[in-house]
Every structure is written in structure tokens, then in C-alpha cells.
Amino acid sequence: MTQRSVLVVLFDGVQSLDVTGPMEVFAGASRFPDVTYGLRTASLDGAPVRTSVGLTLVPDSSLADAEPPHTLLVPGGQGTRHPDPALVDWLRTQAPHAERLVSVCTGALLLAAAGLLDGHRVTTHWVVAEHLARSYPDVEVDPDPIFVRDGKLATSAGVTAGIDLSLALVEEDCGRQVALTVARHLVVFLRRPGNQAQFSAQLTAQTARREPLREVQHWITEHPDDDLSVDALAARARLSPRHFARAFQTETGMTPGRYVERVRIEHARRLLEDTTDGVAGIARTCGYGTPEAMRRAFVKALGTAPAEYRRRCRPQSMTSTTSSVN
């Protein structure tokens, strides 16, 4: 029987979903006969805390009275901006005793303040990634992935990424079938790979101010299989290629080629997740031309091949194997 204790740290201003999302995952896994996660919550003094949306959470105990857990989970929230020094001190002295240390969203700021992220590669919510990197230069901050594993340390991006990370930990502990069943129950994918981007090209890029450039952005999104070269896009915007490329980057924050690359990856990713279409067909639909071209793009952007991405994100019975390129 798999038995692991999970202690979730509570504090005023905590993000409620950072707490309940992972707890629902571990609790769901514990419904299996051979799996047990002992879930407990604790605040610094054992007193109730108010979440960032005003909910009151009543902890099981104080941190001082909590037994050392297998997995210590530190959520994020507004309370991480000006943390209680006593909480940081507790983390500094007690967190290293946990077999697995996990942060969700801006919980990474608490671990960094306690010196627990030095020398490690981590992620956090993209909004605070630059602040984390600037404030703690000994921490290697990667703002793109939804979660990062580095030894016994696991950090995740904002809010729902804590669910993705928790599902990955359950899969590691208990096997794919348990994690898959929990994901189905929660109506989420098992699982978004950790190095999947936190947000889409449409959110990453700024919306262009000028209407012709905005129309081009929309065209790219709606026609990923079309000719999306700079010359073709410039003609659609009625600008010279040089003027178009310069204006597009100025107004959106990325080059046309980079924007096209992200849109195609996202479109292909959705088709791999939501359909049983073969890799070769998806490659054509997304403008790659060949499965090998799409495979190279996936490995470069996500660190995994299309077939492996699909295997991680979809039930095996729904996965198409019509293409030999993986």
C-alpha cells in the first residue's frame, strides 16, 4: 500500500485553489484501495486563515505541532508578498526534512525567501517570475513551464498548474491508471506536460494597435496551414515586408515568425489533445507540411515529440497511432 503524508501550509491571503486543487487530486487518489495520502493543513499558530477571496480555512494544527510530512506543499497567494518572518523561519528549518517539497504559484517566493531554491531550476506564475529572478539571483527561474521538477523540489505556475503538478506526482507515486482516473473525475487532462507553455501566443503577444496588424494576427490564428511567410503576411497588411516585420515586432513584442511558430504549436497541441487525428494529418492542418517538421518544432518548443505529448495528455485508448513519427 502506498502511504504518504501531505502537509499543506496555510497563511492569511493564501490562494484557495492553490490549496484545494492539489488536495482534491491527492484525496481522489486515496479512494483507491492501495493508495493513501494523509492530508493535513497547518498554519503558523494553528489559527484559522482568510484566503485571498475571503474564505476562512480552519487548519488541522499549528506548524509546530505538525509531524514532518513526506510531501510539504506551499501554496501561493497575496500573502506571499509580505510573508510573516516566523513562517519563513519555519520553512527554512523544517522544509528540508520533507522528502518532497512542492510550491504552487507564488508559493515559490516563500521558499526563495527561506533560501530553499538557491541553485535550483524553478518556475512560478509568469507575473512574478521576473521579480523572483531579480530578487534571488542564485535561483534559476524559468517563466515558461507549467511545472518544473528538480530533485526533490517541484514548483508550478499559477493556480490550476498546481493540479497538473499534483497529478504528475500521483502518477509518479501510484501509476498512470490512478492518476488518469483522478484526472477524469476532475474533468481535466492527464496531463499537460510540465514544459508546456503557461499561456498562449495570443496572450503572450500584445494586440497590435493598428487594424491591419490586428487583422494579420487574427488571420494567422484562423489559418495556420496557409502561407504565413513575412512576404505573404506583409501583402495582407498592405505593407512592405521590411516595414511589416518591424511594425509587427514593435506592436506585438515578438517577430512574425515567432508568433506563427507559437500559433502552430498551440493549434497542433489542441488537435493532439482533443482529436484522434493522425500526426501526419495534424502536421498538414497546422502548416508544418511533414510530420518530421512538426516533430522538430515540438521538441524545440516543448521538449517532447507529438506522439509522446499525446500519450501524456490523453487516455491511451483514445490515442491515435496512425503515424510512425514520434
From TrEMBL:
Residues 214-312 form the HTH araC/xylS-type domain. It comes from the Bacteria. The lineage of its organism: Bacteria, Bacillati, Actinomycetota, Actinomycetes, Kitasatosporales. InterPro entries: Class_I_gatase-like, DJ-1/PfpI, Homeodomain-like_sf, HTH_AraC, INH-QAR. The keyword Transcription regulation applies. PANTHER family: ARAC-FAMILY TRANSCRIPTIONAL REGULATOR, HTH-TYPE TRANSCRIPTIONAL REGULATOR RV1931C. This is GlxA family transcriptional regulator. Gene3D superfamilies: 3.40.50.880, Homeodomain-like. Keywords: Transcription, Transcription regulation. Signal peptide: none annotated. It holds the Pfam family HTH_18.
